[in-house]
């Protein structure tokens, strides 16, 4: 059976790399940083948090790359909050905003409300003119729990969009066969998923090391770049330095050449979407 790389028109040993900027739309600083990363020629894709206040600006800032929808059911910052588009009670906490943690969502959200909210986020992005390339999910809410994953997969099949999917090793830890289920539904996803996002200061956990060790096939690497400044420091009280480091990593002018020297080819999700829609 042909590999994903071969189905995309590449050789069996090709190393294809999608570099995605998560959290587009979460803030003006995230939008500016993502735009810079896309312009630098390293980031190839971004995913939009539709319920966030800066989402429409994010659409404009992300146009240099493919834009997916970062399905959002959580709001992790203590003083910077947002609400579900649909207003469903089960999707909000006691303050009237989306819950801070995935476990809160899994414990209280009604699946019908989840499905309606995720569909509303996709439809809003389409109404804004976004040519959606794929779906993924904020804080892994839709990926990591089987009931929610079923909704995630249904939407990918309905809208004929590729998915971010846990890698094979991670899936074994998650405990349910999401990759096989996606294959059965004809949903396309990268072979590998990894990240050094928010960890750039850790020894051995650098993007350059990651790229040097890429396996053949399609790998998605995700980052969370944000421009440093008062806005970021006001809302992210736990990991601002990691977001700044992500921005710095992806705007290094020497990085595209070093990726090419490692034998990797940068792509976005659009070829995967075309493959899924042609099958």
From TrEMBL:
Swiss-Prot/TrEMBL cofactor(s): Mg(2+)
Pfam families registered for this protein in UniProt: YdjC (PF04794)
Keyword Membrane: no
Entry's Gene Ontology BP terms: carbohydrate metabolic process
Keyword field: Carbohydrate metabolism, Hydrolase, Magnesium, Metal-binding
InterPro entries xref list: Glyco_hydro/deAcase_b/a-brl (IPR011330), YdjC-like (IPR006879)
Domain of life: Bacteria
Keyword Protease applies: no
Protein name: ChbG/HpnK family deacetylase
